[in-house]
Design a protein that fits this description.
Elements: E1 23-27, H1 47-56, E2 65-67, H2 73-76, H3 82-94, H4 99-105, H5 120-137, E3 141-144, H6 165-175, E4 180-184, H7 191-196, E5 203-210, E6 232-237, H8 243-261, E7 265-269, H9 287-299, E8 311-314, H10 321-335, H11 346-353, H12 384-396, H13 403-407
Parallel strand pairs: 1-2, 1-3, 3-8, 4-5, 4-7, 5-6, 7-8
Bound molecules: zinc ion.
Residues 186-188, 271, 273, 317 line the site of zinc ion.
Length: 412
């Protein structure tokens, strides 16, 4: 079922480096007002703080910015039901969520609460991710940090996600005939995206995440969950995993998948809840490793004729505002072909110090948050369990067995 695409070519761009001026950052002024409400894990500055930090570093030009447009109801209905899209619009107008919508669509509760611009804000985030796909089709590399809402289902909100922008961005690339490799780095299983493409052989979904035995969504995402076509790849990780173990898991899996499937584009969900300080995540990864992973994705990605990686990066989870903004800023610098500074200049420090967040003041790593962009590596060995799981995935997954031999042109 998997036809090999063109070989991955690397026209001399070392380590997946990107030429300056080929990246686009897609945001909107509306992310300055808080969504979700003060008592929700997402009621923190995220995209706006990231943009402020990037600007404080002087790391974005007007030509590299794109204002996000709002997705139309018709666009949303390429994945979501008409009833759900209409309910979201109606609740925004009403200023509340009627009981019948709460029950049917899982909205207006603690998990997926009502807030002002309840429809417009997620529709704008989705529009931005679809625009990102269009930018990649047009020859650029794009970052839509308000996107990455990977849990949303066709008729329901799930896990803080209202509209599934990764699905709609991938569908945009599919409409152009492109084969897409989706890589979900969020600490949680990318269940909504996996489910959407389980019958599309033109998409492979890869999710590396906290084992659902101890983490949301509490089902699925196991090594054996490969979907009816074998195009779903899942690597669940044990609690507390640190840099070395994660790097081992990633390095075992990612180059092998990229080489087997040979997509026309990569869509990367870059949720930051795997970072060590994250209050909801239970992995302990440094942003230094996170950036390394992004570099590896760029290195193994297909490229436009001028060498620019065909990569769309989306946001995702991430519940520590400072950890998130530092990480996504470093990601943007890399995508934009700019150097990543070790030390933060005073203007950047001021942006971070202005954030109302005092939960970690006594942590030994906390002062570094304001002086350096990248964390120290988090020490720790590779657990045997991780070696075993990553090895088993390569041995047993249909993508790497039988079919893989045929793809490589060997004997059947
Ligand atoms: Zn998450």
């Amino acid at each position: 079922m998997f036809e090999p695409g063109p070989p991955v070519v690397d026209p001399g761009t070392e380590g997946g480096a990107v030429r300056a001026g080929r990246a686009v950052l897609i945001t909107a002024a509306r992310y300055r007002s808080t969504s979700y409400g003060a008592n929700h894990p997402l009621g923190i500055p995220r995209v706006s703080l990231t943009v402020d930090l990037i600007e404080a570093l002087g790391a974005v030009t007007p030509a590299e910015r794109l204002d996000s447009r709002r997705a139309t109801p018709a666009e949303l209905e390429a994945f979501h039901t008409r009833a759900y899209v209409a309910a979201m619009q109606r609740c925004e107008l009403l200023g509340r969520v009627p009981d019948r919508y709460r029950r049917r669509h899982n909205i207006g509760n603690y998990e997926n609460p009502w807030f002002p611009d309840f429809y417009t804000t997620p529709a704008t985030a989705t529009g931005g991710s679809v625009q990102g796909a269009e930018q990649v089709l047009a020859g650029r590399i794009a970052f839509s940090p308000a996107g990455g809402m990977h849990h949303a289902a066709p008729d329901q909100a799930r896990g803080f996600c209202f509209f599934n922008d990764p699905v709609l961005a991938i569908l945009r690339l599919r409409r152009a005939g492109w084969r897409v490799l989706y890589l979900d780095l969020d600490a949680h299983h990318g269940d909504g995206v996996e489910a959407a493409f389980r019958e599309d052989p033109g998409v492979v979904t890869v999710s590396i995440h906290m084992d659902t035995a101890y983490a949301y969504p509490y089902a699925g995402g196991g090594l054996e969950d490969v979907g009816p076509l074998g195009n779903a790849v899942n690597l669940p990780l044990p609690e507390g995993l640190t840099d070395a173990g994660y790097r081992h898991a990633f390095d075992t899996l990612w180059p092998a998948v990229a080489e087997r499937f040979r997509p026309d584009a990569v869509v990367l969900q870059a949720g930051t809840d795997m970072l060590a300080p994250d209050p909801l995540g239970r992995l302990r990864i440094s942003n230094r490793l996170f950036l390394e992973l992004v570099e590896r994705v760029l290195r193994h990605a297909p490229r436009h004729p001028d060498g620019t990686p065909r990569v769309l990066v989306l946001g995702g989870g991430g519940y520590h505002p400072l950890a998130l903004a530092r990480c996504w800023t470093a990601v943007w610098l890399r995508l934009a072909g700019r150097p990543v500074p070790e030390r933060l200049p005073p203007a950047a420090r001021a942006v971070l110090e202005a954030v109302d967040w005092d939960l970690d003041e006594d942590e030994p790593w906390y002062p570094r948050f304001f002086t350096h962009l990248l964390d120290e590596p988090v020490p720790g060995a590779v657990p045997d369990e991780v070696r075993a799981r990553a090895g088993a995935l390569l041995r047993r997954h249909p993508l790497f067995r039988g079919r893989a031999r045929a793809l490589a042109g060997g004997a059947p």
